[in-house]
Amino acid sequence: MIDYQNVIDTIHSNLKDEVNRGLVASYIPELANIDVQNFGIHLRLINGETFATGDWNKKLSIQSISKVLTLAMALPMYPKNLWQRVDVEPSGNPFNHLSLLELENGIPRNPLINAGALVIADILVTLLENPKEDFLNYVRSVVDDPTIAFNEDVANSERMTGYNNYAAANLLKAYGNLRNDVDDVLDFYFHQCAIEMTCEQLSKAFFMFANHGSCCLQKRHLSESQAKRINAIMLTCGFYDEAGEFAFEVGLPGKSGVGGGIVALLPNHYTISVWSPGLNMQGNSLLGMRALEQFTSMTRLSIF
Ligand code: DON
After folding, report:
1. Is 257:242 a contact under the CB 8 Å cutoff?
2. Which of 166, 178, 203, 263 is the most exposed place for a label (fewest CB within 10 A)?
3. Ligand 1 atom nearest to CA at 63
């Protein structure tokens, strides 16, 4: 029997005083103000038991973690055509890289790099009546928490400096892979990234991927096959040009965001969320990766 509370407390005390914590993302000015010392872990087992330590109950900007949730909402609504508009191959490139998009005629490598997430955003803008509100309500229902909200300051801050995403959206539009106006798609995308959640809420949000498609209320949101495929994409693409390293060190499907959050999961067993805002060179939480490496090594619970 594993003493999970002891495991996460040990990891927290191993890492909490680390001096080398990486750098807080500053290309979105509003995120540059976050205290790099924040550090929280939250674990939810498949039976509903939870364990938490550190700053697990503070709100963080989920950023790219939202890309998995937009994919989960879009896939059941657009099951066949989605994979004609975005591929499922790792990119081996940074999250905002544009060269492959041009080489591959506007079909993004996968839905978790920015260009791929913009195509998914475009699909939702087409299919939803009130895209931002409907997506937020989807997230609230999956987490069973009506308090989850956008941080408008973060969304505006990214809009002011989002030149790279404007470039990606314009390239997609030029290749005929965006149906809606560039500004409408970007407005949706900046808002999905600006959702705030605690580590506890993130562990709940990703429960459906560990639970064959059903959320923590046991309501089905994805088929088993869709949950399996999204987990495969997280494993191979969730950490961009560090996906291999994450699989090697941690061995779980997961997703990071430049707010410093990482959520990972072991199907049938647990979801785990870590928040430490300092990022490594690839834009993934530096302590978050180390914490998860320690977790799967100490518990011997990874997919490998
Ligand atoms: O589009 C961006 O650049 C940000 N809103 C999200 C990037 C991100 O979180 C990458 N993840 N590590």
Report:
1. no
2. 166
3. 9
Distance separating alpha carbons of residues 142 and 204, to the nearest angstrom: 8
Helix count (H) and strand count (E) of the chain?
14, 8
Is the CB of 203 inside a 6 Å radius of any atom of ligand 1? no
252: domain range? 4-299
Q: Are strands 261-266 and 149-150 parallel, antiparallel or unpaired?
A: unpaired
Per-residue confidence band for 304, with pLDDT thresholds at 50, 70 and 90: very high
Which pLDDT score is estimated for 252?
A: 98
Half-sphere exposure of 40 (CA within 13 A, CB side): 25
Sequence-distant (≥ 6) Cβ neighbours of residue 147 within 8 angstroms: 140
**130-176 residue pLDDT tens:** 999 999 999 999 999 999 999 999 999 999 999 999 999 999 999 99
pLDDT tens per residue across span 184-224: 999 999 999 999 999 999 999 999 999 999 999 999 999 99
> Cα(266) to centroid of ligand 1, in Å?
24
Say if 304 falls within a structural domain.
no
As annotated, the active-site residues are 64, 67, 189, 240, 258
Domain assignment present for 58: yes
Domain contains 231: yes
User: pTM above the 0.90 mark?
Assistant: yes
Residue 19 located in a structural domain? yes
Number of domains in the chain: 1
